[in-house]
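*** Fold description ***
***
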Amino acid sequence: MEKAVTFGDSRLVYDSASGLPLRWEKEDEALTTFVFPEPFVSLELNGISAANDAEQMIAIRNVMLTGARSELIHDEVKTVSEREKRLVIRTKIDGHWELTTTFLYCGDASLAVSVDVKTTNDSRNPVLRAVRLNLGGFGYRRLDEWELLMPGYIPELTLPIDLHRKLDGCEDRAVFGSRKKDEPGNGTSIMGVYHAESESAMLSWWMSDMFPAVSTMTLIKEEEQLRRESVVYCPCELERGESISIGTFYMSRMKGSRLDALRKAADAFRIYVRSDSQALAGQKTLKICELHIGEKIGRKTFDDYDQIAKKLSYLKSLGFNAIQIMPSFPFPSYSVYDYFNLDKTYGSERGLKNLVRTAKRLGLKVIIDMVLHGPLEKEPASWRMPPGEYEFDSPYLTDRTGWFSRHESGDYARTYTRSFDLANPELRRHISEAIAYYAGSVGIDGVRLDAQTWNFFPNWRPEGGRKPYESIYAGFRMMEEIRKEAKRHYPDLIFYTEGMGPLAAKYHEFRYNYDFHWIYPALSPVRDERGMSTMFWNPASENTLSWSDLAQWLEEQRTTVPRD
Protein backbone atom coordinates (compact mmCIF):
# COMPACT_ATOMS: atom_id res chain seq x y z
CA MET A 1 0.00 0.00 0.00
CA GLU A 2 1.21 3.50 -0.80
CA LYS A 3 1.37 6.52 1.49
CA ALA A 4 1.88 10.10 0.35
CA VAL A 5 2.96 13.38 1.91
CA THR A 6 2.05 16.65 0.21
CA PHE A 7 4.85 19.17 -0.34
CA GLY A 8 3.43 22.35 -1.85
CA ASP A 9 2.04 21.38 -5.26
CA SER A 10 3.86 18.04 -5.21
CA ARG A 11 3.77 14.86 -3.18
CA LEU A 12 6.27 12.24 -2.07
CA VAL A 13 4.91 8.70 -2.36
CA TYR A 14 6.41 5.82 -0.36
CA ASP A 15 5.55 2.21 0.48
CA SER A 16 3.74 1.88 3.81
CA ALA A 17 5.24 -1.55 4.61
CA SER A 18 8.86 -1.17 3.53
CA GLY A 19 9.20 2.60 3.94
CA LEU A 20 10.96 2.77 0.58
CA PRO A 21 10.34 6.02 -1.36
CA LEU A 22 8.69 5.39 -4.72
CA ARG A 23 8.39 8.72 -6.53
CA TRP A 24 8.23 12.47 -6.09
CA GLU A 25 5.58 13.80 -8.42
CA LYS A 26 3.99 17.10 -9.18
CA GLU A 27 0.22 17.31 -9.33
CA ASP A 28 -1.16 17.18 -12.87
CA GLU A 29 2.34 16.98 -14.38
CA ALA A 30 4.00 13.68 -15.25
CA LEU A 31 6.83 15.35 -17.17
CA THR A 32 9.09 15.96 -14.16
CA THR A 33 8.43 12.96 -11.91
CA PHE A 34 11.45 11.67 -10.00
CA VAL A 35 11.40 7.90 -9.55
CA PHE A 36 13.26 6.06 -6.79
CA PRO A 37 14.68 2.73 -7.99
CA GLU A 38 14.32 0.04 -5.35
CA PRO A 39 16.12 0.55 -3.07
CA PHE A 40 16.86 4.27 -3.04
CA VAL A 41 19.54 3.71 -0.36
CA SER A 42 21.83 0.69 -0.14
CA LEU A 43 25.00 0.00 1.85
CA GLU A 44 28.38 -1.36 0.80
CA LEU A 45 29.71 -3.47 3.68
CA ASN A 46 32.84 -5.31 4.76
CA GLY A 47 35.18 -6.43 1.97
CA ILE A 48 38.95 -6.03 1.77
CA SER A 49 41.03 -3.09 0.56
CA ALA A 50 42.71 -4.19 -2.65
CA ALA A 51 46.37 -3.60 -3.46
CA ASN A 52 46.44 -0.24 -5.17
CA ASP A 53 49.62 0.99 -6.85
CA ALA A 54 48.28 3.08 -9.74
CA GLU A 55 44.79 4.54 -9.35
CA GLN A 56 43.94 7.11 -6.71
CA MET A 57 40.42 5.86 -5.97
CA ILE A 58 39.39 3.43 -3.25
CA ALA A 59 39.44 -0.17 -4.48
CA ILE A 60 37.58 -2.79 -2.43
CA ARG A 61 37.26 -6.52 -3.12
CA ASN A 62 34.43 -8.79 -1.96
CA VAL A 63 32.16 -5.98 -0.83
CA MET A 64 28.61 -6.94 0.20
CA LEU A 65 25.61 -4.86 -0.89
CA THR A 66 22.61 -4.64 1.42
CA GLY A 67 19.35 -2.71 1.46
CA ALA A 68 16.90 -4.79 -0.57
CA ARG A 69 14.94 -6.07 2.47
CA SER A 70 13.42 -3.05 4.17
CA GLU A 71 10.83 -2.72 6.95
CA LEU A 72 9.21 0.52 8.08
CA ILE A 73 9.75 1.24 11.78
CA HIS A 74 8.47 4.79 12.06
CA ASP A 75 7.40 7.70 9.87
CA GLU A 76 6.64 11.24 10.91
CA VAL A 77 5.70 14.49 9.16
CA LYS A 78 6.69 17.78 10.75
CA THR A 79 5.89 21.31 9.55
CA VAL A 80 9.05 23.29 10.25
CA SER A 81 7.79 26.67 9.02
CA GLU A 82 5.38 28.17 6.54
CA ARG A 83 7.70 27.15 3.72
CA GLU A 84 9.40 24.05 5.13
CA LYS A 85 8.02 20.58 5.77
CA ARG A 86 9.95 17.49 6.81
CA LEU A 87 9.21 13.77 6.36
CA VAL A 88 11.30 11.38 8.45
CA ILE A 89 11.24 7.69 7.56
CA ARG A 90 13.03 5.18 9.82
CA THR A 91 13.52 1.69 8.43
CA LYS A 92 15.30 -1.53 9.33
CA ILE A 93 17.21 -3.13 6.46
CA ASP A 94 18.37 -6.73 6.31
CA GLY A 95 17.90 -7.12 10.05
CA HIS A 96 21.09 -5.40 11.22
CA TRP A 97 20.88 -1.79 10.09
CA GLU A 98 18.63 1.18 10.66
CA LEU A 99 18.28 3.99 8.15
CA THR A 100 16.78 7.35 9.01
CA THR A 101 15.99 9.14 5.75
CA THR A 102 14.83 12.73 6.07
CA PHE A 103 13.14 14.55 3.17
CA LEU A 104 13.08 18.32 3.71
CA TYR A 105 10.92 20.40 1.37
CA CYS A 106 11.89 24.07 1.35
CA GLY A 107 9.08 25.51 -0.75
CA ASP A 108 11.24 26.05 -3.82
CA ALA A 109 10.48 22.84 -5.74
CA SER A 110 13.53 21.19 -4.15
CA LEU A 111 13.95 18.25 -1.80
CA ALA A 112 16.98 17.95 0.47
CA VAL A 113 17.55 14.33 1.48
CA SER A 114 19.79 13.36 4.39
CA VAL A 115 20.60 9.80 5.48
CA ASP A 116 21.69 8.53 8.91
CA VAL A 117 23.02 4.98 9.14
CA LYS A 118 23.08 3.00 12.40
CA THR A 119 24.07 -0.59 13.10
CA THR A 120 22.06 -2.85 15.42
CA ASN A 121 24.36 -5.84 14.98
CA ASP A 122 25.05 -7.60 18.31
CA SER A 123 27.78 -10.01 17.24
CA ARG A 124 30.45 -7.84 15.61
CA ASN A 125 31.37 -4.39 14.44
CA PRO A 126 30.67 -4.32 10.72
CA VAL A 127 32.64 -2.18 8.31
CA LEU A 128 30.62 0.39 6.38
CA ARG A 129 32.39 1.23 3.11
CA ALA A 130 29.92 3.42 1.26
CA VAL A 131 26.28 4.42 0.88
CA ARG A 132 24.72 4.19 -2.57
CA LEU A 133 21.95 6.57 -3.60
CA ASN A 134 19.89 5.77 -6.69
CA LEU A 135 17.56 8.22 -8.39
CA GLY A 136 15.67 7.77 -11.65
CA GLY A 137 12.94 9.32 -13.73
CA PHE A 138 15.19 11.68 -15.70
CA GLY A 139 13.58 12.03 -19.12
CA TYR A 140 11.08 9.31 -18.24
CA ARG A 141 9.23 7.96 -21.30
CA ARG A 142 10.24 11.00 -23.35
CA LEU A 143 13.86 10.39 -24.24
CA ASP A 144 13.30 12.10 -27.59
CA GLU A 145 12.50 15.39 -25.82
CA TRP A 146 15.12 15.68 -23.08
CA GLU A 147 18.83 16.63 -23.29
CA LEU A 148 21.62 16.29 -20.75
CA LEU A 149 22.42 19.14 -18.38
CA MET A 150 25.67 18.34 -16.53
CA PRO A 151 27.77 21.50 -16.10
CA GLY A 152 31.52 21.03 -15.98
CA TYR A 153 31.47 17.35 -16.96
CA ILE A 154 33.18 16.19 -20.14
CA PRO A 155 30.59 15.68 -22.91
CA GLU A 156 30.16 12.29 -24.55
CA LEU A 157 33.33 11.98 -26.67
CA THR A 158 32.32 8.84 -28.59
CA LEU A 159 29.88 10.97 -30.62
CA PRO A 160 30.20 14.34 -32.34
CA ILE A 161 29.85 17.09 -29.71
CA ASP A 162 26.26 18.33 -29.43
CA LEU A 163 25.16 19.87 -26.14
CA HIS A 164 21.52 19.66 -27.26
CA ARG A 165 21.47 16.05 -28.41
CA LYS A 166 18.31 14.32 -27.22
CA LEU A 167 18.72 11.25 -25.02
CA ASP A 168 17.32 8.86 -27.61
CA GLY A 169 20.29 9.78 -29.83
CA CYS A 170 22.74 8.30 -27.32
CA GLU A 171 23.76 4.67 -27.02
CA ASP A 172 21.79 2.38 -24.71
CA ARG A 173 23.58 1.97 -21.35
CA ALA A 174 25.71 5.03 -22.11
CA VAL A 175 27.33 6.28 -18.90
CA PHE A 176 27.75 10.01 -18.32
CA GLY A 177 29.91 11.57 -15.64
CA SER A 178 33.03 9.91 -14.27
CA ARG A 179 33.81 7.14 -11.82
CA LYS A 180 37.04 9.01 -11.02
CA LYS A 181 35.65 12.49 -10.30
CA ASP A 182 34.73 13.09 -6.68
CA GLU A 183 32.02 15.53 -5.68
CA PRO A 184 31.72 18.23 -4.50
CA GLY A 185 35.52 18.58 -4.57
CA ASN A 186 36.55 18.06 -8.17
CA GLY A 187 33.12 17.84 -9.82
CA THR A 188 30.21 20.29 -9.68
CA SER A 189 27.97 17.33 -8.72
CA ILE A 190 25.04 18.88 -10.63
CA MET A 191 23.56 16.24 -12.94
CA GLY A 192 20.24 16.20 -14.74
CA VAL A 193 18.27 16.85 -17.90
CA TYR A 194 16.61 19.76 -19.67
CA HIS A 195 13.36 19.96 -21.65
CA ALA A 196 13.72 22.88 -24.07
CA GLU A 197 10.10 23.05 -25.25
CA SER A 198 8.65 23.50 -21.76
CA GLU A 199 11.80 25.14 -20.32
CA SER A 200 11.90 22.58 -17.53
CA ALA A 201 14.89 21.02 -15.80
CA MET A 202 15.29 18.04 -13.47
CA LEU A 203 18.51 18.39 -11.50
CA SER A 204 20.26 16.62 -8.62
CA TRP A 205 23.45 17.26 -6.69
CA TRP A 206 25.46 16.19 -3.63
CA MET A 207 26.95 18.28 -0.80
CA SER A 208 29.30 17.33 2.04
CA ASP A 209 32.60 18.63 3.43
CA MET A 210 33.53 15.22 4.80
CA PHE A 211 32.12 12.53 2.53
CA PRO A 212 32.91 12.57 -1.20
CA ALA A 213 30.55 11.00 -3.70
CA VAL A 214 31.31 9.60 -7.14
CA SER A 215 28.31 9.83 -9.45
CA THR A 216 27.31 8.61 -12.89
CA MET A 217 24.19 8.86 -15.02
CA THR A 218 23.23 5.75 -17.01
CA LEU A 219 20.79 5.71 -19.92
CA ILE A 220 18.49 2.67 -19.77
CA LYS A 221 16.39 2.66 -22.90
CA GLU A 222 14.26 -0.35 -21.98
CA GLU A 223 13.11 1.63 -18.91
CA GLU A 224 12.92 4.83 -20.97
CA GLN A 225 14.83 6.82 -18.38
CA LEU A 226 18.19 8.06 -17.18
CA ARG A 227 19.31 6.96 -13.71
CA ARG A 228 21.79 8.57 -11.34
CA GLU A 229 23.90 6.53 -8.95
CA SER A 230 25.97 8.32 -6.32
CA VAL A 231 28.39 6.27 -4.24
CA VAL A 232 29.12 8.18 -1.04
CA TYR A 233 32.38 7.07 0.58
CA CYS A 234 32.18 6.91 4.38
CA PRO A 235 34.49 4.02 5.43
CA CYS A 236 34.41 3.26 9.15
CA GLU A 237 33.80 0.50 11.66
CA LEU A 238 30.61 1.10 13.63
CA GLU A 239 29.89 -0.23 17.09
CA ARG A 240 26.38 -1.37 18.02
CA GLY A 241 24.08 1.64 18.28
CA GLU A 242 26.60 3.99 16.66
CA SER A 243 25.33 6.08 13.75
CA ILE A 244 26.79 8.23 11.00
CA SER A 245 25.23 11.11 9.03
CA ILE A 246 26.62 11.21 5.53
CA GLY A 247 25.63 14.56 3.96
CA THR A 248 22.81 15.93 1.82
CA PHE A 249 21.48 14.86 -1.58
CA TYR A 250 19.31 17.33 -3.48
CA MET A 251 16.76 16.91 -6.24
CA SER A 252 14.88 19.77 -7.83
CA ARG A 253 12.54 20.83 -10.61
CA MET A 254 13.45 24.13 -12.24
CA LYS A 255 11.73 26.41 -14.75
CA GLY A 256 13.49 28.75 -17.19
CA SER A 257 16.51 28.50 -19.44
CA ARG A 258 19.38 26.07 -18.88
CA LEU A 259 21.35 28.86 -17.20
CA ASP A 260 18.38 29.88 -15.06
CA ALA A 261 18.07 26.32 -13.79
CA LEU A 262 21.78 26.05 -13.00
CA ARG A 263 21.79 29.38 -11.15
CA LYS A 264 18.96 28.19 -8.93
CA ALA A 265 20.74 24.91 -8.20
CA ALA A 266 24.04 26.68 -7.52
CA ASP A 267 22.33 28.82 -4.87
CA ALA A 268 22.87 25.83 -2.60
CA PHE A 269 26.64 26.39 -2.94
CA ARG A 270 26.51 29.80 -1.26
CA ILE A 271 27.76 28.19 1.94
CA TYR A 272 31.07 27.68 0.10
CA VAL A 273 31.54 31.37 -0.80
CA ARG A 274 34.88 32.73 0.36
CA SER A 275 34.72 35.65 2.79
CA ASP A 276 37.68 37.31 1.07
CA SER A 277 36.39 36.93 -2.50
CA GLN A 278 36.23 40.70 -3.10
CA ALA A 279 39.86 41.17 -2.10
CA LEU A 280 40.97 38.77 -4.83
CA ALA A 281 39.85 40.86 -7.79
CA GLY A 282 43.34 42.26 -8.39
CA GLN A 283 44.84 38.78 -8.62
CA LYS A 284 42.50 37.62 -11.36
CA THR A 285 44.74 39.20 -14.01
CA LEU A 286 47.46 36.57 -13.54
CA LYS A 287 48.78 35.00 -16.74
CA ILE A 288 50.95 32.11 -15.64
CA CYS A 289 53.67 30.29 -17.60
CA GLU A 290 54.53 26.84 -16.20
CA LEU A 291 58.25 25.98 -16.26
CA HIS A 292 60.59 23.23 -15.09
CA ILE A 293 64.19 22.10 -15.37
CA GLY A 294 65.24 18.62 -16.46
CA GLU A 295 63.81 15.96 -18.73
CA LYS A 296 60.06 15.25 -18.66
CA ILE A 297 58.53 12.49 -20.83
CA GLY A 298 61.51 12.47 -23.16
CA ARG A 299 61.70 16.24 -23.58
CA LYS A 300 63.98 18.85 -22.05
CA THR A 301 63.47 22.61 -22.35
CA PHE A 302 65.83 23.96 -19.69
CA ASP A 303 68.86 22.39 -18.01
CA ASP A 304 68.98 24.85 -15.12
CA TYR A 305 67.40 27.98 -13.67
CA ASP A 306 70.00 30.27 -15.22
CA GLN A 307 68.64 29.30 -18.64
CA ILE A 308 65.10 30.11 -17.49
CA ALA A 309 66.25 33.46 -16.07
CA LYS A 310 67.59 34.48 -19.49
CA LYS A 311 64.13 33.88 -21.00
CA LEU A 312 62.10 35.85 -18.46
CA SER A 313 62.15 39.13 -20.40
CA TYR A 314 60.93 37.26 -23.47
CA LEU A 315 58.13 35.58 -21.48
CA LYS A 316 57.08 38.97 -20.14
CA SER A 317 56.95 40.36 -23.70
CA LEU A 318 54.50 37.56 -24.57
CA GLY A 319 52.11 38.85 -21.92
CA PHE A 320 52.92 36.59 -18.97
CA ASN A 321 53.07 38.26 -15.58
CA ALA A 322 53.73 35.17 -13.46
CA ILE A 323 55.75 31.96 -13.66
CA GLN A 324 55.03 28.64 -11.99
CA ILE A 325 58.00 26.46 -11.04
CA MET A 326 57.36 22.72 -11.16
CA PRO A 327 59.40 20.12 -9.25
CA SER A 328 62.68 18.99 -10.77
CA PHE A 329 62.46 16.34 -13.50
CA PRO A 330 62.91 13.44 -13.96
CA PHE A 331 63.21 13.10 -10.15
CA PRO A 332 61.48 13.64 -7.80
CA SER A 333 58.91 14.84 -10.36
CA TYR A 334 55.39 14.67 -8.91
CA SER A 335 56.42 13.00 -5.69
CA VAL A 336 57.69 14.31 -2.35
CA TYR A 337 61.27 13.97 -1.24
CA ASP A 338 61.77 16.55 1.53
CA TYR A 339 59.90 19.86 1.47
CA PHE A 340 62.89 21.66 2.97
CA ASN A 341 65.50 20.12 0.65
CA LEU A 342 65.25 22.49 -2.31
CA ASP A 343 68.24 20.94 -4.08
CA LYS A 344 66.40 17.63 -4.33
CA THR A 345 62.84 18.91 -4.75
CA TYR A 346 63.40 21.74 -7.24
CA GLY A 347 66.86 20.90 -8.58
CA SER A 348 68.90 23.74 -7.07
CA GLU A 349 68.31 25.95 -4.06
CA ARG A 350 70.77 28.57 -5.32
CA GLY A 351 69.33 28.53 -8.82
CA LEU A 352 65.73 28.75 -7.61
CA LYS A 353 66.42 31.71 -5.31
CA ASN A 354 68.33 33.55 -8.05
CA LEU A 355 65.45 32.95 -10.46
CA VAL A 356 62.95 34.38 -7.95
CA ARG A 357 65.07 37.51 -7.50
CA THR A 358 65.39 37.99 -11.27
CA ALA A 359 61.64 37.52 -11.77
CA LYS A 360 60.86 40.07 -9.05
CA ARG A 361 63.10 42.67 -10.72
CA LEU A 362 61.08 42.22 -13.90
CA GLY A 363 57.77 42.51 -12.06
CA LEU A 364 56.88 38.83 -12.47
CA LYS A 365 55.19 36.87 -9.69
CA VAL A 366 56.56 33.43 -8.83
CA ILE A 367 54.34 30.49 -7.88
CA ILE A 368 55.78 27.21 -6.69
CA ASP A 369 54.22 23.84 -7.48
CA MET A 370 53.82 21.82 -4.27
CA VAL A 371 53.17 18.07 -4.35
CA LEU A 372 51.10 16.51 -1.58
CA HIS A 373 50.82 12.81 -2.56
CA GLY A 374 53.81 11.35 -0.74
CA PRO A 375 57.31 9.99 -1.53
CA LEU A 376 58.37 7.39 -4.09
CA GLU A 377 59.54 3.99 -2.84
CA LYS A 378 60.64 2.83 -6.30
CA GLU A 379 60.58 3.96 -9.90
CA PRO A 380 57.06 3.86 -11.40
CA ALA A 381 57.15 1.65 -14.48
CA SER A 382 55.05 4.04 -16.53
CA TRP A 383 57.33 7.04 -15.99
CA ARG A 384 60.06 5.96 -18.45
CA MET A 385 62.73 7.78 -16.45
CA PRO A 386 66.03 8.20 -18.31
CA PRO A 387 69.00 6.11 -17.10
CA GLY A 388 70.48 7.47 -13.91
CA GLU A 389 70.99 6.98 -10.20
CA TYR A 390 67.81 7.87 -8.30
CA GLU A 391 67.60 7.86 -4.53
CA PHE A 392 64.21 6.60 -3.37
CA ASP A 393 65.13 7.35 0.22
CA SER A 394 62.94 10.21 1.35
CA PRO A 395 63.51 10.72 5.08
CA TYR A 396 59.73 10.71 5.54
CA LEU A 397 59.61 6.99 4.62
CA THR A 398 61.63 5.99 7.67
CA ASP A 399 61.37 8.92 10.09
CA ARG A 400 57.70 9.82 9.76
CA THR A 401 55.86 6.52 9.31
CA GLY A 402 52.83 7.86 11.20
CA TRP A 403 52.21 10.40 8.42
CA PHE A 404 50.93 7.76 5.99
CA SER A 405 47.55 6.10 5.46
CA ARG A 406 47.23 2.38 6.01
CA HIS A 407 44.77 -0.29 4.94
CA GLU A 408 43.04 -2.55 7.49
CA SER A 409 45.88 -5.06 7.04
CA GLY A 410 48.37 -2.48 8.27
CA ASP A 411 49.99 -2.19 4.84
CA TYR A 412 50.58 1.33 3.54
CA ALA A 413 48.06 2.79 1.11
CA ARG A 414 49.73 3.60 -2.17
CA THR A 415 49.23 5.01 -5.62
CA TYR A 416 52.57 5.44 -7.37
CA THR A 417 53.82 6.90 -4.08
CA ARG A 418 53.26 5.91 -0.50
CA SER A 419 50.21 7.98 0.43
CA PHE A 420 50.34 10.77 2.95
CA ASP A 421 47.43 11.07 5.40
CA LEU A 422 46.70 14.79 5.12
CA ALA A 423 44.48 14.60 8.20
CA ASN A 424 47.57 14.06 10.36
CA PRO A 425 48.05 17.25 12.46
CA GLU A 426 51.84 16.93 12.58
CA LEU A 427 52.06 16.55 8.80
CA ARG A 428 49.77 19.55 8.32
CA ARG A 429 52.04 21.68 10.50
CA HIS A 430 55.04 20.51 8.50
CA ILE A 431 53.37 21.51 5.22
CA SER A 432 52.36 24.85 6.73
CA GLU A 433 55.94 25.48 7.85
CA ALA A 434 57.24 24.57 4.38
CA ILE A 435 54.88 27.09 2.75
CA ALA A 436 56.07 29.76 5.19
CA TYR A 437 59.67 28.87 4.32
CA TYR A 438 58.99 29.19 0.58
CA ALA A 439 57.30 32.56 1.09
CA GLY A 440 59.87 33.96 3.56
CA SER A 441 63.25 32.50 2.61
CA VAL A 442 62.68 31.84 -1.10
CA GLY A 443 60.39 34.81 -1.75
CA ILE A 444 57.62 33.12 -3.72
CA ASP A 445 54.25 34.83 -4.26
CA GLY A 446 52.00 31.79 -4.32
CA VAL A 447 51.56 28.04 -4.13
CA ARG A 448 49.91 25.72 -6.61
CA LEU A 449 48.68 22.70 -4.61
CA ASP A 450 48.86 19.58 -6.71
CA ALA A 451 46.01 17.04 -6.75
CA GLN A 452 44.83 17.41 -3.16
CA THR A 453 42.50 14.44 -3.42
CA TRP A 454 44.93 12.12 -5.19
CA ASN A 455 45.33 10.17 -1.94
CA PHE A 456 41.68 9.13 -2.05
CA PHE A 457 42.03 6.66 0.83
CA PRO A 458 40.76 6.20 4.34
CA ASN A 459 43.37 5.66 7.03
CA TRP A 460 42.48 2.57 9.04
CA ARG A 461 45.36 3.12 11.49
CA PRO A 462 45.19 6.86 12.22
CA GLU A 463 47.02 8.49 15.10
CA GLY A 464 44.80 10.33 17.56
CA GLY A 465 41.64 8.24 17.19
CA ARG A 466 40.31 9.82 14.01
CA LYS A 467 37.74 8.01 11.89
CA PRO A 468 39.15 6.39 8.72
CA TYR A 469 36.98 8.54 6.43
CA GLU A 470 38.43 11.79 7.84
CA SER A 471 41.51 11.30 5.66
CA ILE A 472 39.76 11.21 2.27
CA TYR A 473 38.91 14.91 1.93
CA ALA A 474 41.58 16.10 4.36
CA GLY A 475 43.59 17.63 1.49
CA PHE A 476 40.87 20.24 1.06
CA ARG A 477 39.89 20.75 4.68
CA MET A 478 43.48 21.24 5.88
CA MET A 479 43.66 24.46 3.85
CA GLU A 480 41.38 26.24 6.32
CA GLU A 481 44.12 26.28 8.96
CA ILE A 482 47.09 26.40 6.57
CA ARG A 483 45.75 29.41 4.66
CA LYS A 484 44.86 31.21 7.88
CA GLU A 485 48.36 30.76 9.27
CA ALA A 486 50.08 31.72 6.00
CA LYS A 487 47.93 34.83 5.50
CA ARG A 488 48.81 36.11 8.99
CA HIS A 489 52.38 36.65 7.80
CA TYR A 490 51.95 36.87 4.02
CA PRO A 491 48.49 38.34 3.35
CA ASP A 492 48.95 38.48 -0.44
CA LEU A 493 50.08 34.87 -0.81
CA ILE A 494 48.21 33.13 -3.63
CA PHE A 495 46.78 29.61 -3.31
CA TYR A 496 45.33 27.64 -6.18
CA THR A 497 44.52 24.06 -7.01
CA GLU A 498 43.08 21.97 -9.83
CA GLY A 499 39.73 20.98 -8.32
CA MET A 500 36.70 22.63 -9.94
CA GLY A 501 33.92 21.59 -7.57
CA PRO A 502 32.26 23.99 -5.13
CA LEU A 503 34.08 22.50 -2.14
CA ALA A 504 37.46 23.30 -3.71
CA ALA A 505 36.25 26.91 -4.07
CA LYS A 506 35.68 27.08 -0.33
CA TYR A 507 39.35 26.57 0.45
CA HIS A 508 41.19 28.14 -2.51
CA GLU A 509 41.20 31.51 -4.23
CA PHE A 510 41.79 30.07 -7.67
CA ARG A 511 41.14 26.76 -9.37
CA TYR A 512 41.53 25.11 -12.75
CA ASN A 513 40.95 21.65 -14.14
CA TYR A 514 42.79 19.33 -16.51
CA ASP A 515 39.38 18.12 -17.68
CA PHE A 516 39.26 21.19 -19.91
CA HIS A 517 41.85 19.48 -22.13
CA TRP A 518 39.06 17.73 -24.05
CA ILE A 519 38.30 21.11 -25.62
CA TYR A 520 41.44 21.30 -27.77
CA PRO A 521 41.00 18.16 -29.90
CA ALA A 522 37.23 18.72 -30.00
CA LEU A 523 37.81 22.16 -31.55
CA SER A 524 40.59 21.23 -33.96
CA PRO A 525 42.65 18.16 -34.96
CA VAL A 526 45.54 17.66 -32.52
CA ARG A 527 48.37 15.19 -32.88
CA ASP A 528 51.13 14.31 -30.45
CA GLU A 529 53.98 12.05 -31.49
CA ARG A 530 53.99 10.59 -27.97
CA GLY A 531 50.41 9.37 -28.46
CA MET A 532 46.98 10.70 -27.57
CA SER A 533 45.25 10.07 -24.25
CA THR A 534 41.76 8.66 -24.70
CA MET A 535 40.80 10.41 -21.47
CA PHE A 536 40.43 13.66 -23.40
CA TRP A 537 40.35 12.60 -27.04
CA ASN A 538 38.28 10.39 -29.31
CA PRO A 539 38.33 10.47 -33.13
CA ALA A 540 34.50 10.49 -33.19
CA SER A 541 34.36 13.91 -31.50
CA GLU A 542 37.52 15.42 -32.91
CA ASN A 543 36.97 18.77 -34.64
CA THR A 544 33.18 18.69 -33.96
CA LEU A 545 32.87 21.30 -31.18
CA SER A 546 31.40 24.58 -32.40
CA TRP A 547 32.46 27.86 -30.87
CA SER A 548 28.90 28.54 -29.75
CA ASP A 549 28.69 25.19 -27.94
CA LEU A 550 32.07 25.84 -26.33
CA ALA A 551 30.90 29.26 -25.10
CA GLN A 552 27.76 27.65 -23.67
CA TRP A 553 29.67 24.83 -21.97
CA LEU A 554 32.07 27.28 -20.32
CA GLU A 555 29.29 29.61 -19.22
CA GLU A 556 27.31 26.74 -17.69
CA GLN A 557 30.39 25.54 -15.85
CA ARG A 558 31.10 29.04 -14.49
CA THR A 559 27.50 29.36 -13.34
CA THR A 560 28.13 26.63 -10.73
CA VAL A 561 30.92 28.60 -9.02
CA PRO A 562 29.79 29.63 -5.51
CA ARG A 563 28.73 33.29 -5.49
CA ASP A 564 27.25 35.80 -3.06
